[in-house]
Amino acid sequence: MAGEQLKLTRAVSIVLTAGAMVAGLTACQKAPVPGTPSPDASSAITGVTHPATSPAAGPVSTTAPRAAAVPTAAWVHSNRLPLDDAEHWPNLADSAEPLGNNTFQTSSLCAGTPTQVGGSENARALIDRGAGNWSVQQVLVHYPGDPWTMGQTAHAMFNELQNTLKGCQNSSSGASSTLTTPPNSACPSVERGGCNQVAAEVHSPQGDVTAHIYLAAVGSTVTELSLWSTGTPTAQWPEPADEDVFAAMNPQLCSVWEC
Description:
A hairpin with a 4-residue loop joins strand 5 and strand 6 (209-218). The model is unreliable at 1-9 and 11-66 (pLDDT under 50). The chain is of the alpha+beta class. It has one domain (72-256): Protein Transport Mog1p, Chain A (3-Layer(aba) Sandwich), CATH 3.40.1000. It has seven helices and seven strands, in the order H-H-H-E-H-E-E-H-E-E-E-E-H-H. Helix content is 29%, strand content 23%. The chain has a seven-stranded antiparallel beta sheet with strand order 1-2-3-7-6-5-4, with helices on both faces. Residues 32-62 are annotated as: Disordered. This is Metallo-beta-lactamase superfamily protein,putative.
């Protein structure tokens, strides 16, 4: 009996020893080898870079591009536009768009040749209130590059538009113009750089249009501000001084662009 118990004890001992050896071998096989990244390890820890999952593509914008080449600060501030007390003009910059096939109001009313603006940064802002009301438009054409050289280009454009304005009554449109600021006037509101300005009131029988036009060349930028009505507008023209209007549209151009 004692012999059988001894044999049983030895058998159990052998089984336990073998189990311990198998368990130890399994643990060794599962243990990571130093320096080898585990499949779930972060790349920040292992130093291995894993490609990020690409986010889902967002919707494609179909909005037309804005006239980003003309900074917001270049436009006449709405509260300095004539008739703002009556019309409550919105910010012109919010309506800005590339000039495209549109042209200066001077050319439209006086049947002038559309001005070529190739090589320029340009935009227009139009607030059209329709018949019986006042509307406003500002056009900005800037020639980037050397201020003196490109200033010659800008002033050539100004002279072309000024001649169209002066000769409006001789155009095929039947319109007439009265200059309220003499041609090639200096700009009191601009302290540096070349600047010339002219203003006029234009009447066109086509559509019974009355327009007030302010045109200036400031450094290498040409700007035109025009306000017009068709028929008899509700608000009466307030007769602002031309220089007050020019002071609202010219000086900031030398801050936005070098003059």
